[in-house]
Amino acid sequence: MIDVITGKPLQVDETAGGPALFDVPASQLKEIEGLLDAYGIRYWVDGNSISLFGEPETTVVYFGHAGDLKKIQTLLDSVS
What is the domain extent for residue 72? Predict the structure, then answer.
């Protein structure tokens, strides 16, 4: 799945010792939630969106420590 802000593929990150997560353009959040729900992937969305330097708003989707990073990334990569 392509990030509408950067034009690059969305990438799930795993912070050192932290949960799997990724930044999502707010305009794509509903589409991503639908995809994750359809595949039974557990997640939660940060309650706040942020816009820096006049850029479009983004929010963070978290998958927690039990999130299967490879499965989630493969799913995102399968969407054109």
Answer: 13-78
